[in-house]
Design brief:
This protein is mostly beta strands. Helices cover 0% and strands 53% of the residues. It has no helices and eleven strands. Strands 2, 4, 5, 6, 9, 10 and 11 form a seven-stranded mixed β-sheet that branches.
């Protein structure tokens, strides 16, 4: 059992930066692939970024490349978001699982999820 808690969300203006944090507790002796997803009102949850245990296996959704940066450590993950747009408004979730490679971009590869943190970007 792993518990994930996101923090760092809030209300910001377009163009600024924001960093989200995810702290893991519980079964901390295992190493997990960590990922970020988001869900905007009325839309399906979508993949944002993931790190599958290696700096050479980091993935980003196409719309986030160049703006978002994921940084992973044992039992922790961060998401730095730059040049935020109103379209980035969503609840952001961190997740832990055992996905490797491209499969880490899919929800099904994750076993544990946080409750999410709200990010609202105003124009």
């Amino acid at each position: 059992q792993v518990q994930l808690v996101e923090s760092g969300g809030g209300l910001v203006q377009a163009g600024v930066s924001l960093t989200l944090s995810c702290a893991a507790s519980g079964r901390t002796f295992r190493t997990y692939t960590m990922g970020w997803f988001r869900q905007a009102p009325g839309k399906e949850r979508e993949f944002v970024a993931a790190n599958s245990w290696s700096d050479s296996n980091t993935y980003y959704a196409d719309s986030m490349k160049g703006r978002f940066t994921i940084s992973s450590a044992k039992n922790a993950v961060y998401l730095q978001m730059n040049s935020l747009k109103p379209e980035d408004t969503a609840v952001y979730y961190c997740a832990a699982g055992h996905g490797m490679g491209i499969v880490a971009t899919t929800e099904a590869s994750y076993d544990y999820w946080g409750q999410g943190t709200q990010v609202t970007v105003s124009s």
